[in-house]
Backbone:
């Protein structure tokens, strides 16, 4: 399998850090706002109770995002470590939530090398990006690889992501948003898998990682 152009280690680590910060800044900011409302002596008991609910909800969201990012982008254990797929599924469900997208995790509960799990979670992120109005994401194992199906109203593949996956994007233009599909591509290359996105009918995007 031919390796595509690569970012430097420093650039990749910086962009991934920016991506994680982008994911968690919103709930952390909501926590700070809620605490400010609770500390304001001019707010009544009802307002403070509402602020406390905001803090609880934002803290739950921040925790879910950090747990997800720890596995999807971080070391998630020592070198050569394995990850329980059942645990990974629980973390993925916590990250996705239940409001806009429903996650159907059908990957067998078994220990898999952490690189496998990192790739699968990054495939989930690609699938989420393809559902602007929400829908259902189904995740299954397929031999040594995985298949993720994203079905929903106006499901679509973003051209910028495909360009990154196919190595057709100028790496100097990558930002905190596009570094994620780039990182997914690097993970798939390390596992000798071909990562691709394709439409299946008008409302379904398929993200696949199969033997090259």
Residues:
């Amino acid at each position: 399998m031919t390796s595509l152009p690569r970012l430097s280690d420093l650039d990749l680590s910086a962009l991934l850090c920016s991506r994680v910060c982008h994911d968690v800044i919103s709930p952390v900011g909501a926590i700070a706002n809620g605490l400010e409302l609770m500390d304001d002596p001019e707010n009544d008991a009802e307002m403070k109770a509402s602020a406390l609910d905001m803090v609880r909800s934002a803290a739950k969201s921040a925790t879910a995002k950090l747990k997800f990012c720890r596995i999807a982008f971080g070391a998630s254990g020592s070198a050569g470590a394995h990850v329980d797929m059942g645990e990974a599924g629980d973390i993925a469900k916590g990250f996705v939530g239940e409001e806009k997208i429903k996650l159907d995790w059908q990957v067998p509960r078994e220990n898999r090398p952490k690189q496998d799990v990192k790739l699968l979670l990054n495939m989930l992120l690609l699938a989420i990006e393809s559902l602007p109005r929400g829908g259902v994401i189904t995740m299954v194992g397929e031999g040594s690889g995985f298949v993720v199906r994203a079905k929903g109203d106006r499901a679509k593949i973003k051209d910028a992501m495909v360009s990154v996956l196919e190595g057709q994007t100028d790496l100097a233009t990558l930002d905190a948003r596009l570094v994620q599909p780039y990182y997914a591509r690097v993970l798939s290359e390390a596992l000798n898998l071909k990562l691709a996105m394709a439409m299946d009918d008008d409302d379904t995007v398929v993200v696949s990682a199969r033997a090259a």
